[in-house]
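STRUCTURE:
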């Protein structure tokens, strides 16, 4: 086992998997930050840390059910109409429902922030998430949605790396643990920064809406959906992350400009 983990192929796979988990975890951190900031101040750090630790446990448990997760991508029902063809799988359903959930939560939050008076901010927060357990439950639901996609991607990347699947399983578990440790280190500072800057809250919610639409199109792509003879293609994740990075850069410049004024 140790000999395998110290090989160059295993080390490169570990670095790649860890980087992948961290990049895909950015969406998670934004959602966790917004969910945790709805709680009283004394519970926010706890919600963030507990949410990420439970997310790590959840992902490790899911890794032990890799064959089950791979089975989720197999279609169990096909809709064939003159204008629509869809091969429905459980993976597509999870991504589709997750996309709808993100869009609903984000648009609700944006409407609340725009329509609610600022002096009643604490009252508004208490109406949305009433307890620590409720916030953690929401965090685990959204992490499960992202975990299915990221774990299947990780399985594809490590396929054929070693004849013994237990070795690659250990490699994926190590990558998950390292990535969660990195996210725990950065999650609370990011959450506090988002809480201090209302414009960043709106931007983060806009990102979640964008990610929600991406999950829906990903579900359509995995279902081999054809609408009026046109197949639905996957949106390259690089485009999404470039848009997010560019928006953050513009917001950073805007923040610096305001400080100088």
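SEQUENCE:
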């Amino acid at each position: 086992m140790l000999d395998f983990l110290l090989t160059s192929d295993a080390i490169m796979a570990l670095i790649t998997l860890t980087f992948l988990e961290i990049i895909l975890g950015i969406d998670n951190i934004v959602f966790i930050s917004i969910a945790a900031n709805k709680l009283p101040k004394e519970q926010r750090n706890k919600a963030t840390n507990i949410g990420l630790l439970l997310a790590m446990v959840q992902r490790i448990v899911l890794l032990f059910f890799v064959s089950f997760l791979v089975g989720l991508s197999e279609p169990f029902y096909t809709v064939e109409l003159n204008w629509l063809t869809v091969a429905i799988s459980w993976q597509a359903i999870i991504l589709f429902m997750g996309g709808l959930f993100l869009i609903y939560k984000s648009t609700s939050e944006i409407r609340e922030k725009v329509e609610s008076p600022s002096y009643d901010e604490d009252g508004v927060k208490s109406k949305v998430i009433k307890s620590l357990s409720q916030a953690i439950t929401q965090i685990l639901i959204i992490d499960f949605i992202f975990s299915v996609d990221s774990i299947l991607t990780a399985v594809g990347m490590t396929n054929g790396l070693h004849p013994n699947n237990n070795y690659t399983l250990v490699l994926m578990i190590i990558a998950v643990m390292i990535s969660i440790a990195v996210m725990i280190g950065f999650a609370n500072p990011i959450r506090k920064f988002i809480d201090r800057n209302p414009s960043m809250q709106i931007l983060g919610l806009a990102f979640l809406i964008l990610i929600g639409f991406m999950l829906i199109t990903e579900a359509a792509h995995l279902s081999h959906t054809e609408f009026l003879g046109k197949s639905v293609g996957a949106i390259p994740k690089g485009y999404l992350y470039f848009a997010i990075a560019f928006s953050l850069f513009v917001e950073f410049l805007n923040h610096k400009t305001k400080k100088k004024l």
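REMARK: The two ends are 59 Å apart (CA to CA).
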